[in-house]
Design goal:
The chain is of the alpha+beta class. Helix content is about 25%, strand content about 50%. The protein has 3 helices and 6 strands, in the order H-H-E-E-H-E-E-E-E. Strands 2-1-6-5-4-3 form a 6-stranded mixed beta sheet, covered by helices on one side. A hairpin with a 2-residue loop joins strand 3 and strand 4. The radius of gyration is 13 Å and the shape is globular.
């Protein structure tokens, strides 16, 4: 396991629970981009996470961290019951204090 900044570690921990736990990791005006969609604000982020959690069961294992400008890139191995069952994803986090202001998830 890599040594993650506290807000990012809290995100991955909350991701094992539910959308309500995940949304607490974000600022009020945070933006998430995932699978070609953009979710702005905590309520949209809650729906995104609740819907994706209901759709698939998965486990995320972060294994690398880097900085790109103002973004923290966390590369993670994802396994679960989605098509393909295994993939490495890149999570680009923008932090604001102890919260996440932005998250983009890409292949």
């Amino acid at each position: 396991m890599v040594d993650l900044p506290t807000p990012i570690s809290a995100y991955f921990e909350a991701d094992t629970r539910d959308g309500d736990a995940v949304v607490q990791c974000f600022t009020e005006t945070a933006v998430v981009k995932d699978e070609g969609h953009t979710y702005s604000g905590r309520e949209a982020i809650r729906r995104w996470k609740t819907d994706s959690t209901a759709k698939y069961t998965y486990v995320v294992e972060p294994f690398a961290i880097a900085t790109e400008g103002d973004r923290t890139l966390v590369t993670s191995h994802l396994t679960g019951n989605f098509p393909g069952r295994s993939v490495d994803l890149r999570y680009f986090f923008v932090l604001e204090g102890d919260k996440i202001a932005g998250l983009e998830i890409t292949l």
